[in-house]
């Protein structure tokens, strides 16, 4: 049986350095991240000159609009998380992958392997969606594998001899469901003998992208107020950790109904409302958190960010969360009654062996 590996290839502008990687998405399992591995191939001229070649893992965090930048002021941080010398090779033990072993045999003596370990506390790849007319760099977190030549890893790289290949740090859904979300809220009113009770339940805690969310609503009206309308919505919470007031929410799916209303005193109402949060319905809205590579056609809403603890939050990261919010409208004098339930929205973990077996070597 012959297995072909799908390989990503990128050359420097002067064609002296070539980078090969078999994947551009690396899974974060909260406690550890998959190692970043690849092959660097040099031209014979660089080998004869004994050029020093460095590979770095760079995190690019943009926290402001590019159009608002002025002289000496940039709303961007470029962090070098890992740096190592590839050529001449240093004395270190590298456990080669099958892809690296095969490429080393095929590409010859000018090929040099590398392995980098991403810090587990580093932020996930998330960017904030811009308007279609805005072509500036989006706000958010992006990762690059940088290959360049120089006397040291602190040297300023030259564009003609530098490679920047974008990668993503991703998280996939846990294999087990959590506790079924359920909440009950009550509201009493002045000069009213009873309370208005709202009970909201989701059918499960973990949803995959594109999956329908069933919101079970039960209203018991023991007050003297009248419920005129019911509204259910999915809200995406975005927390830019760098800023103290960097939290905001976007409603990405909603449904409202007056069926069964007005709900008079002493009555009850049971209803199931279905919501499907998708990026297609929000493609023209700015500020929506989406997956790290915004240029991809198959990008989606950003997944829920899983962290080991609140103390493990990286200062240069964006935390994404989701919640279902149900609101009862009681008229101008009665006000509103709201209930909120957080849930997890993520992609299912793909079969890594099946992904590696797809396609052929891009040579």
UniProtKB/TrEMBL annotation:
Residues 192-350 form the Arrestin C-terminal-like domain. Belongs to the arrestin family. SMART domains: Arrestin_C (SM01017). Keywords: Sensory transduction, Vision. InterPro entries: Arrestin, Arrestin-like_C, Arrestin-like_N, Arrestin_C-like, Arrestin_CS, Arrestin_N, Ig_E-set. The keyword Amino-acid biosynthesis does not apply. GO terms for molecular function: G protein-coupled receptor binding. It comes from the Eukaryota. One of its GO terms (biological process) is negative regulation of phospholipase C-activating phototransduction signaling pathway. This is Phosrestin-2. SUPFAM superfamilies: E set domains. GO terms for cellular component: cytoplasm; rhabdomere.
